[in-house]
UniProtKB/TrEMBL annotation:
PROSITE patterns: SUBTILASE, SUBTILASE_SER. The active site is at residues 52, 210, 395. This is Peptidase S8/S53 domain-containing protein. It comes from Panagrolaimus davidi. Coiled coil: none annotated. GO terms for biological process: proteolysis. The lineage of its organism: Eukaryota, Metazoa, Ecdysozoa, Nematoda, Chromadorea. The keyword Hydrolase applies. One of its GO terms (cellular component) is cytosol. One of its GO terms (molecular function) is serine-type endopeptidase activity. Signal peptide: none annotated. Keywords: Hydrolase, Protease, Serine protease. Pfam families: Peptidase_S8.
């Protein structure tokens, strides 16, 4: 109780009493092993676009890459929250005074060179970050834009009495400089971009700490404390803000993807919820991935632990993207929560966080591809005192995976090994680690292993021309067991794999060992058809059962796993008074699922409807 009171009274006091240590997990994905063998493959030459809530560009660890290049290449705000119209032109009076649009008199320093004598003015209401708990409103500020003969310049720190002390900035992409707004004790890092021949000023500032955390996990670089680094300290970042000060997301999907193509990014990290779009948007994403080789990493969401909790909005492109769930390991529990586990089996067994959304996805698909560590301790932005904070969620696991793969791509580029997003996913599929009894709807293919994936790609490039491509739209084989002892379905292989140019008769279908006792599969015929049979007598009522059908190539082994879902519900009837009891043993962070089928007569159904 005392500790809670201390926390509620002063978070800063508690933070100083029990200071956390920066920690970004790297061992689970083999990043530590990989960089110990290849320290120069740390993400160098890789650009990561972070589509999120904006980034605090002033953070120490986001200034430079391991090679000394600017860490953040450019910042884009797709919300319009920072836009200021600066089309009104004024000139100085004889005393170098400029009357701002607020009516304030602004004495312009003689050092500010403006050959044309034309000053473009705007007025902007600055919004406080949405996580800052204060009702105090920030004032409007005058904005000044001018051309100094070489480049566009801007000053928004016009609240200062002496403008000689105000920061003058130019486009961030050119000089990579930023300023710190200090308004009513509120500090906010910002940068600017001048557009439309000086008639539009874009002020870029983060309104949430989410994007800063994501950026640090993916690619933070500390010059003196490299153990605090993110997954890809050598990679560069392009920041794309989609969250405004009211916590609303503005997902300008088409322009974001076009900007990623224009900036020649290698990886997109998307950790801000479900991605939805029309056919044109999905077609553009397909183009970005298959034509421009951009890897698209996306979080599966935090709606677990229920099965089927993964959003279905992007099922048309699910197999093109990398959908990442959140992993928890024993080392993470020790570092984050100081939990010591005596049971060696539990200590060594990785788990998926209970909040991480589960499959199956659309049309019985797996729903997610891989898992990566889903928590970190990183630094908060300026507006939150730059304190270290503990974050967890699939928003953490996605940049962890993206950063790890940035290291993998760095190694491939250095060795002049050509790759595609499909090939990277295939290599990860072949080398990922699925723990014993791991559920594919929780782990996907398993935990990313970049060291093994790199070795696999280096050794097997000669065989990759024969690897078939997966169909963009996600799907699987879904059965619902209902008073039938045996279930049967004819399946077309072309729904899963682009087999038009393949001799599919050479492929063999195999069942993973966990499901051989209840799933049988026939050979593939000349029309790419095969039959799946399920014996429901093997199931316990109330369970969701999974299997995988492996498509085996005689040269490269498994080329694709087709997920099979069998729902076998527990029927609760009037004869049981709609009552059910069962004694179960619950394990830490291991959800127990029971699926019910409530059987009612028509009268009871009508009564429920009326109520």
């Amino acid at each position: 109780m005392c500790l809670k009171m201390l926390y509620l009274k002063s978070k800063t006091f508690l933070h100083n009493l029990f200071p956390p240590k920066s920690y970004i997990p790297k061992d689970a994905t083999q990043q530590s092993i990989f960089l110990s063998k290849y320290p120069e493959f740390d993400g160098r030459g890789i650009k990561i676009a972070i589509i999120d809530s904006g980034i605090d560009i002033s953070l120490e660890e986001l200034q430079k890459t391991s090679e000394g290049h600017p860490k953040i290449i450019d910042c884009f705000d797709f919300t319009g929250a920072g836009d200021v119209e600066t089309s009104i032109i004024k000139e100085l009076d004889s005393k170098n005074i400029l009357i701002g649009l607020s009516g304030r008199k602004l004495k312009i320093p003689k050092e500010w060179k403006n050959p044309s004598g034309k000053w473009k003015l705007g007025l902007k209401k600055i919004f406080k970050p949405n996580i800052v708990k204060t009702s105090e409103k920030l004032p409007e500020i005058d904005c000044i834009v001018w051309f100094n003969g070489q480049k566009w310049c801007a000053c928004i720190e016009t609240y200062k009495k002496d403008l000689k002390k105000a920061k003058v900035l130019t486009n961030f992409r050119d000089d990579h400089e930023y300023g710190i707004l200090t308004l009513k004790k509120q500090k906010m890092a910002y940068c600017i971009t001048v557009k439309n021949d000086g008639n539009l000023l874009e002020i870029f500032t983060p309104y949430d700490h989410h994007g800063s955390c994501v950026a640090q996990i993916a690619a933070a670089y500390f010059v003196k404390n490299t153990e605090k680094n993110g997954l890809a300290p050598g990679a560069q970042i392009i920041c794309m803000n989609v969250l405004d000060s009211t916590n609303r997301y503005f997902i300008d999907s088409k322009n974001m993807i076009l900007k990623c193509i224009e900036m020649k990014v290698d990886i997109i990290n998307y950790s801000v919820g479900a991605f939805s779009g029309d056919k044109e948007t999905h077609s553009l994403i397909d183009k970005a991935i298959n034509k421009y080789n951009i890897l698209f990493f996306k979080s599966v969401g935090n709606d677990g632990p229920f099965f089927g909790s993964i959003p279905k909005y992007d099922s048309d492109i699910e197999n093109l993207t990398f959908k990442i769930g959140a992993l928890s390991t024993y080392e993470m529990k020790k570092r984050f929560l100081n939990i010591m586990i005596d049971d060696k089996n539990l200590a060594s067994s990785p788990m998926v966080y209970s909040f991480s959304s589960r499959g199956p996805g659309a049309a019985g698909s797996r729903g997610l591809d891989f898992v990566a560590p889903g928590a970190a301790i990183t630094k908060d932005p300026h507006f939150n005192s730059e304190m270290l904070n503990y974050f967890k969620g699939t928003s953490c696991s996605t940049p962890n995976a993206a950063g790890a793969i940035a290291c993998l791509l760095s190694g491939l580029k250095a060795n002049l090994i050509q790759y595609s997003p499909a090939l990277i996913k295939f290599a990860l599929f072949k080398t990922s680690f699925l723990p014993e009894n791991g559920n594919i709807f929780e782990f996907g293919h398993g935990i990313i292993q970049i060291n093994e994936a790199f070795d696999y790609l280096c050794k097997n490039m000669i065989n990759f021309e024969s690897v078939p491509t997966w169909m963009p739209k996600a799907s699987g084989i879904y059965f619902f067991g209902d008073n039938q002892n045996f279930l049967k379905r004819d399946v077309n292989l072309s729904n899963f794999v682009n087999a038009q140019k393949e001799d599919t008769t050479k492929w063999e279908l195999q069942i993973l060992s966990n499901a051989k006792n209840f799933v049988k599969v026939s050979d593939i015929d000349e029309n790419n058809l095969f039959t799946v049979k399920v014996d429901t007598n093997k199931f316990e009522a109330g369970t969701l059962n999974f299997a995988e059908i492996m498509i085996m190539d005689p040269i490269i082994g498994s080329v694709f796993n087709i997920p099979v879902t069998v729902v076998f519900p527990l029927k609760i009837t009037e004869n049981q008074n709609y009552n059910f009891q069962k004694e179960i043993c619950l394990k830490y962070e291991n959800p127990y699922h029971i699926i019910f089928d409530l059987v009612m007569n028509e009268k009871e159904e009508r009564n429920i409807t009326k109520e």
